[in-house]
Each structure stands twice: as C-alpha cells, then as structure tokens.
UniProtKB/TrEMBL annotation, chain A:
Keywords: Cell membrane, Electron transport, Heme, Iron, Membrane, Metal-binding, Transmembrane, Transmembrane helix, Transport. It comes from Nakamurella flava. The keyword Metal-binding applies. The chain crosses the membrane at residues 6-32, 44-62, 74-94, 115-137, 157-182, 194-216, 222-241, 248-269, 297-320. GO terms for biological process: aerobic electron transport chain. Its main location: membrane. Pfam families: Cyt_bd_oxida_II (PF02322). It is found in: Cell membrane. GO terms for cellular component: cytochrome complex; plasma membrane. This is Cytochrome d ubiquinol oxidase subunit II. Coiled coil: none annotated. The keyword Nucleotidyltransferase does not apply. Belongs to the cytochrome ubiquinol oxidase subunit 2 family. It is a multi-pass membrane protein.
UniProtKB/TrEMBL annotation, chain B:
It is a multi-pass membrane protein. Coiled coil: none annotated. Pfam families: Cyt_bd_oxida_I. The keyword Transmembrane applies. InterPro entries: Cyt-d_ubiquinol_oxidase_su_1. GO terms for cellular component: cytochrome complex; plasma membrane. This is Cytochrome ubiquinol oxidase subunit I. The chain crosses the membrane at residues 20-41, 53-71, 91-115, 127-146, 180-205, 226-248, 337-359, 371-392, 412-438. It comes from the Bacteria. Residues 455-496 are annotated as: Disordered. It comes from Nakamurella flava.
Length: 346, 496
C-alpha cells in the first residue's frame, strides 16, 4: 500500500505541476487581446511564455502516462467516461500548440489574427474544461460495478463542476496576469497589473465558494483547510500585486494554484474516482492500481529522473528570466506599419 | 459502422498521420545537430546559415509531430479503455518513461534552442540540439517497446482473476529482439526521412541556380546540406534494409501469420519463392498469377534458400487448435501490398542516394532539370515507406491487439457510443487535413526564402547577458524588483 500511496502523491504532484506551470501560460494566452492589445504588445505576451509553454504542457503528458502506468483502471474509466470533453480539450491543445509556432511564420495580419484567436479561444476553454473535469472527479461520476462510466456528457455539466470550471478559469487569468506583471515592462505591465487587481477579487470569491461546496460534497477537514489556504494565498497574491511585489505575488498565485489542486486530491483520497451510484463501485488507489512490480519499477524511474527533469527545466526558466518589453520585439514580416504610442517607454 | 470499426479507422488515420512527421523530426534533428557541430568546430558561417535554414523547417514540422502525439497518448483511454485495463500494468510503463525521459528533454531543450541563440554560448546551444535529438530517439525507443509488446508479448503473466496482463520483467519488454530490430529499423528509416527532406528541399532551392546571383548563393550554401543528406540517405537506406531483413526473421518466428500474409503464402513451402507481383482472386484467398524469384522468401525468413516457411492455412489451423475456433487471418491483400510498397520505397531511396552521390561527386552539379525534380520527388519515398510499414505491421497483427493474448474486438471502450467515436473521427480528420495544408504551405514558403545572409546569421548569435527580475533601477532586489529600466534595447535574436 505504500507504493499505491506514493503513486497517488506523485500523480497529484504532476497535476499540481501542470496547473501551476501551464496555468500561467493559459492565462497569458487568454489575456492576449486584453493585456496585449496591439500587435507588438501581443507578441510581448507570447514571447514571455514562448520558450517554456511546451515544457509546461509535458507535465500533462507525464501525468497521463503515469496514470496509465500506475492506475490503469483510473486512466481507462476517466478517459473513456469524459470522452467528448476530452475531445474538445485535445482539439484546443492541438490548435494552441501549433498556433504558438505558426503565428509568426506567416506574413499577413490576417494570418496572425487567426492564430491569435486560436490561442485566445483555446486558452479560455482549456482551464474551464480542466476545472469541470476535476470538479467531476471530486464530485464523483456514475461508475457501475465494472468501473465503467454510465452517465452522459451532460451529466458532467453539473453546477458544482461548472463552478469549478469558472474558478479555475478565474484563477488562471489571475495567475497569468501576475506572471505578466513580473515578466513585462512599461504599458504592457501596467495593463497586466490593473487587470489582475480588478479580476482577483472575483477569483478569490469564486474559489472560496467552490472549496466550501467541495467540502460539503466530500473530503476531510484537511481538504477544506488546504482549499481555504489556497483562497488566502490568492488574496495575498492580490495584495502583493497592489504594492508591485511582482515576484512574491507570482510565488503566491502559484502556491494558491498548487493548494487548490492539492485540496482536490485530498478530498477524493483514498479514492481516485468516486462512484456516485454506489461507494463500493468507486475506483480506489487499491483497486485501480498496477502490480507492486510495476509500481516499484516506476518508483525507481521517478526517483532517478524527476530531480533531473526539474533541474533542467528550472535552468531553462533561469536562462529566460529577463523581462520582455515591446522594444525587444523585432518587426513582424509584412506588418502594416504604425505601431502607436504603446511602443514608447514610460 | 460500429464503434469498433470507427475506433480502428481513427487509430489508423491518426497514427499514420502522426508518423508522417515524427520520422522527419528525428532525422532532421540529428542532421541539424551535425551541421551545428560543424559550425561550432569550424566557425565557418556557411554551416550556421544552413542550421538556421533547416532549423525553421524543422520547427514547422516538429510542431505537428508534438501536438498529434498528445492525441495518441489520450486515445488509448478514450477509444480503447478495455485494452488499457488489460495491458495498463505493462503498456503504461514505457509510455510514462517516454514522457519523463524523452518529452521533457525534447520540449525544454527545444525552447532553449529556439530562443537561446543570443543567450547561450555556441557550444551550449549546440548541446541543446544534441539533447533534443537524443530526446526524439529515446521517445521512439519507448514507444517502439510498447508496440513491440503488442506484436510479441514478453515479460508478462496473465492474471485470469483480474483479467489483465501483469508485468514480471521490464528488461524483457524493453530489449526483446523484436523490439531492438524494430527500433533500429524505425530509426534508420527516420534517417532516410530527414535526409530526403534535406536532399529534396536543397534540390528544389538549387534547381534554378543559374538564374540569378541569389540562386547561385543559395546553391553554394546548401550544397553541403545536399551532400550530407545524400550520405545520410545512403547510410539510412542500407541500415533500413539490413535491419528490416533481421526484423523479418524475428517476425517469422514470433508472428508467422503476419509474414505468411505479407507473402500471400497460403501453404507451407520448402524453398519458398519471393513474389514480386501477385494477382489473387477477389476474395484474396488464392493466387491467380505471379512473378516469382525462387528461394528468396525462404532466405529472407530463415537464412536458407531451402528453408521451410509456414503458410497462412497451416498457421490458421494451428491457431484454431491453440486459441479455439475463429479467423486468425489478417486481410491478406493489404499486408501483401503494404509489405511490397514498404520494401519498394526502401530500395528506391537506396538507388536515389547512389545516383545522387554519383551526380554530385567532386563538386559537380547536374544540369538536367529532371534530376533535380527526381530529388524533390524523393521526399515522398520515406513517407510512403513509413505509412505502408505501419499499416503492414498493425494490420498484419489482426485480429489481435496483443498477439495471442487479447483481441482487437475486445479492446474497444464498451460505453463509448459509435456516435461519439464518429464525431471525434470526423473532427480529427478535418483538423489534421487543415494542419497538413498549413504545414506544406509554410514549408514551401521557408524553403523558397532560402538560407539567411551571413550578416543576419551572425547577428543572431551575438551574446548579451540576461538581466534578472530584480536588477531594476528602483533600488529593490531579488524577487521584489518591480521594474526594469532596460538599458539593453536590442531586439531579441528570436521572437515569436
């Protein structure tokens, strides 16, 4: 059972890593037109995440692979049960992935605008969809005795899950706004900061309601405590943004994201996917797991390589630690001229 | 159509499509790493210009390979949940290792390579491309291990009570002979893919070289790439053919039905001939007319011209005894023709590389247009070869998803409706169609643009020290730096 617990924790950590890291790059994508406004401003935004978004996304792929390896029943029930939701998620991930790479490869404004919309729509949709998905994991889904999902797509759109979707969206927008305040300069930074300050109260309120509701559905008091800590952390991030302590604000918004995800996993433990039909039909860390042989093997692989991965990924963040301003952005090929006062420094 | 048929179509379409881009990425990453190493060692800007040129094309291609790979990982759970439950204990491990050991390496060092021109020393920058190249090859290793397990399940016991395969020996899974030869075959094939892009696009850019000064300059810069591509294509073709031959021998042992079907060999034969072309009856169950080379099939399968090769009918009878009544034959015409298409593509690339090396020997460049167009057409060779190879190897395994252990018909998700699968099949096929048009358009655009000028290439590697979050002028430090006065206003060497 130690190994089952270990892998429950490791998979939770992978999801935490995913939401914390891709969370801010979703936020940046979603704020493309609000904070970026004009062409050069938008490119500042995209370049703040350009070198790192792909690595952030691998946390998701690793979480998926690790779930397949450690809890195959969980992987099978969840991925087949959330079929149409995952279809939309995949379309968004595919569109978003090529959009970053292809946006700057064309030479017309129309071309760039199309990819901007791809980035924008997918960056709004993905946090909502992930929030809804995890809302359903926490709430439980109709699993039959064979651990097969027997509900419909519409069952996934229940009020609690939708609230969780909205919460994650607001959180990600705040987290992204804080990241942009940290990584940009001048007017782009001012807009990011102003937006964050306006939005954060809504995110804090939504999260507060969501974690209390989550506690009423399931979970130990510890899950509630961690959820409330996430709310507090976000409030502190908001306060720090007010006084322009950008670095610390980012640490706190990242912490808040990590704590919210932690509260989900604490709420469902020792289940991995609770059944709403009969608690006995729930998938647990025991009945969903691989054999001790596989879990042991994967543990050694994880112990050997996770520190290495975290190390070089951290290094890449260090290499690209510099703030980016519109002055650093070279001209787009074939751009219609006149970039207005935005480009001036303050 | 039922959910099973649709799920099979979806898997086929998305996998073949994914694998149009992956081998090109693997091959190009390796060749670009070689060129960048040449740049670091010689400091001759001609190499840097080539790296920059191929780098752009590589990134366009790599992006699609990455995003279509995400779908591959999710698809097992979505469409094939029963399969996932059955094999998760053994199949999930290589997938998780692939993500942890390969995907992180690729994505992180890709980011560093794209944006790091002016932030890393040339050596470190070059090392990033090598790590990226290693990442692409590691990724292929783990995915091939997972696939080889499906072709020949080793290192497992079946737990009847839990209804699943349980891993007992990871080493057997990762290093069974089928896996090692299949991996070698795929990597060698990927080298052909990358080199065909090098040769084809260099040829396309050079074919008009006498028209203007710019064309002459393009030809001068890309000539080393053309030669490198041709040499790599020769090596890749030879290795593909050798590894393919050795793989076929292992497959004859562990998947006799697939190899018999590949030859449309109905009855067990001593000294079996290799058929170059066979016309069969409409139901594909017997032969009407063929051109044959005596003894070659036996040699391919057993290393002896008179060796015994088991026929489809005999394997079928044996399997019925072993696994109970049922049809254990794949669709013979599909396996037969895909096998020929795959081999034909391999030999065509070998011929192309030899002709190309001869025509460009000692500084020569051919004058005839059609030679250049032939090189451009060569890009299609490995694409056809890889697609046919995958269709052959996956269709040849039917009706099994895990040979001898688990049937494809049992693998599909029981609660996912045909309508859902049809929806995703239509969505992904349409999306992939759009991506293909965009990709080809961009490849042409950047191939046409040609390599950057020497000044442009050198300007991008001028180093500048990064300024940190906290060294703003407002007196704060560390994480609390609120602004950046930004003395350095040079544009980034690379920006999206």
């Amino acid at each position: 059972m130690f190994l089952n617990n270990l892998w429950f924790v490791l998979i939770a950590l992978l999801w935490i890593g995913y939401f914390v890291l891709e969370g801010f790059d979703f936020g940046v994508g979603a704020l493309l037109r609000i904070v970026g406004r004009k062409e050069k401003g938008r490119r500042v935004l995209i370049n703040t995440i350009g070198p790192v978004w792909d690595g952030n996304e691998v946390w998701l792929l690793t979480a998926g692979g690790a779930t397949f390896a450690a809890f195959p029943e969980w992987y099978a029930s969840m991925f087949s049960g959330f079929y149409l939701a995952l279809l939309v998620i995949l379309v968004c991930l595919i569109g978003r992935g090529v959009a970053f790479e292809y946006r700057g490869k064309g030479s017309t404004d129309t071309w760039r605008a199309r990819w901007d919309w791809t980035i924008l729509i997918s960056s709004w949709a993905l946090p909502v969809l992930w929030g809804v998905a995890f809302g359903n994991v926490v709430r439980g889904v109709p699993l039959d005795a064979d651990h097969e999902y027997v509900g419909t797509f519409l069952d996934l759109l229940n009020p609690f899950a939708l609230l969780m979707g909205v919460t994650v969206l607001l959180l990600v927008l705040t987290h992204g706004g804080v990241y942009l305040s940290l990584k940009t300069t001048a007017q782009v930074r001012d807009r990011a900061q102003a937006f964050t300050l306006r939005l954060a109260p809504f995110a804090i309120a939504a999260m507060a309601v969501a974690v209390v509701w989550q506690y009423l559905i399931r979970g130990p008091v510890l899950s509630l405590a961690v959820g409330l800590a996430a709310v507090v952390a976000l409030a502190v991030a908001w306060a720090l943004t007010r006084v322009s302590r950008d670095g610390w604000a980012f640490v706190l918004s990242a912490l808040s994201t990590g704590l919210l995800v932690t509260s989900w996993f604490l709420a469902i433990y020792p289940n991995v996917l609770p059944s709403t039909l009969d608690p006995a039909w729930s998938l647990t860390i025991e009945n969903a797991a691989s054999t001790p042989y596989t879990l042991t093997l994967m543990s050694w692989v994880a112990i050997a390589f996770v520190p290495l991965v975290v190390g070089y990924q951290a290094w890449s963040y260090w290499v690209f630690r510099k703030r980016i301003s519109v002055r650093h952005i070279p001209d787009s090929p074939g751009a219609t001229a006149q970039e207005s006062p935005q480009t001036s420094s303050r | 159509m039922d959910a099973l048929t649709l799920a099979r179509w979806q898997f086929g379409i998305t996998t073949v499509y994914h694998f149009l881009f992956v081998p090109i990425s693997i091959g190009m990453a390796f060749l670009i790493a070689l060129l960048e190493t040449a740049w670091v060692r010689t400091r001759n800007p001609i190499y840097l210009r080539q790296v920059k040129f191929w780098g752009k094309l590589f990134l366009i291609n790599f992006a699609i390979g990455v995003v279509t790979g995400i779908l591959q990982e999710f698809q097992f759970g979505m469409n094939w949940s029963s399969y996932s439950r059955f094999v998760g204990d053994v199949f999930g491990a290589p997938l998780a290792m692939e993500a942890l050991l390969a995907f992180f390496l690729e994505s992180t060092f890709l980011g560093l390579w794209i944006f790091g021109w002016d932030k890393l020393s040339p050596k470190l920058h070059c090392a990033c491309m090598w790590l990226l190249s290693i990442g692409t090859m590691l990724s292929a290793f783990f995915i091939m291990a997972a696939n080889s397990f499906m072709q020949n399940p080793v290192g497992v016991t079946v737990n009847v009570e839990r209804g699943r395969a349980e891993m007992v020996d990871i080493w057997a899974v990762l290093t069974q002979p089928l896996q090692l030869w299949a991996y070698a075959h795929v990597i060698a094939g990927a080298l052909i893919s990358g080199s065909a892009i090098f040769v084809g696009i260099a040829a396309w850019a050079m074919k008009n070289r006498d028209r203007s000064e710019r064309h002459a300059e393009t030809a001068r810069v890309l000539r080393p790439s053309l030669r490198l591509g041709l040499v790599a294509m020769l090596i890749g073709s030879v290795l593909t053919i050798v590894s393919g031959d050795l793989l076929a021998k292992v497959m004859t042992d562990v998947q006799p039905m697939k190899m018999a079907a590949a030859e449309a060999l109905w009855d067990t034969t001593d000294g079996a001939s290799f058929s170059v072309i066979t016309i069969g009856t409409l139901d594909g169950r017997s032969e009407v007319w063929s051109i044959r080379v005596p003894g070659v099939l036996s040699f391919m399968a057993t290393e002896s011209f008179s060796g015994t090769v088991e026929g489809i009918n005999d394997v079928q009878a044996r399997y019925e005894q072993q696994y109970g009544p049922g049809d254990y034959r794949p669709i013979v015409p599909v396996t037969y023709w895909m096998f020929r298409l795959m081999m034909g593509a391999g030999f065509a690339m070998l011929a192309l590389s030899i002709v190309g090396l001869w025509l460009t020997r000692k500084g020569r460049l051919p004058q005839q247009k059609w030679v250049w167009w032939l090189a451009v057409g060569g890009i299609a060779g490995p694409i056809v070869g890889h697609s046919a190879g995958w269709i052959f190897t996956e269709m040849g395994r039917q009706p099994w998803s895990v040979l001898g252990l688990y049937k494809t018909a049992d693998s599909v998700s029981p609660t996912v409706s045909a309508g859902s699968v049809l929806t995703s099949l239509i969505v992904f096929t349409a999306l992939y169609g759009v991506l293909a048009v965009v990709e080809v358009g961009l490849m042409l655009k950047y191939a046409k643009a040609g390599p950057p000028s020497e000044e442009e290439a050198l300007a991008s590697i001028e180093r500048r020290p990064p300024r940190s979050w906290g060294d703003g002028s407002d007196g704060t430090s560390g994480l609390d730096g609120s602004d950046d006065d930004d003395a350095d206003e040079r544009p980034m060497a690379f920006a999206y």
